[in-house]
């Protein structure tokens, strides 16, 4: 499954266009390698997503084409979530 679609289906990022923009700005890595929006995501992959002052690391647990809102958090496991302090 494409990275941008996975991020939308899992609701880590609400819109696919936003997921595509973030990936194309090289703010997402999969298993330590910079990923484009079209990069394939597999079960077991570790994603590191840099949002402005927050870095989110998740592990992919499942892949589905569609999911209900209440089931979306079952597609991934949060490994770490860190915030940068701004002065």
**H and E order:** HHEEEEE
Number of strands: 5
> What would you call the quaternary organization?
single chain
Beta strand % = 25-35%
Biggest sheet, spatial arrangement of strands: 2-1-3-4-5
**CATH class category name:** Alpha Beta
Radius of gyration: 12 Å
Specify the structural class. Answer: alpha+beta
CATH topology descriptor: Structural Genomics Hypothetical 15.5 Kd Protein In mrcA-pckA Intergenic Region, Chain A
Q: In percent, how helical is the residue content? A: 10-25%
The largest sheet is: 5 strands, antiparallel
C-alpha geometry: globular
> What number of structural domains do the residues give?
1
Distance between the termini: 39 Å
Mean pLDDT: 90
Low-confidence stretches: none
Supply the CATH superfamily name.
RNA-binding S4 domain
Number of helices: 2
CATH architecture: Roll
Describe the structure.
- The protein has 2 helices and 5 strands; from the N terminus they run H-H-E-E-E-E-E.
- A 5-stranded antiparallel sheet has the order 2-1-3-4-5, with no helix packed on it.
- The model has no long low-confidence stretch (mean pLDDT 90).
- The chain is α+β, with helices and mostly antiparallel strands and 87 residues long.
- Strand 1 and strand 2 (33-34) form a beta hairpin.
- The protein has one domain: RNA-binding S4 domain (Structural Genomics Hypothetical 15.5 Kd Protein In mrcA-pckA Intergenic Region, Chain A).
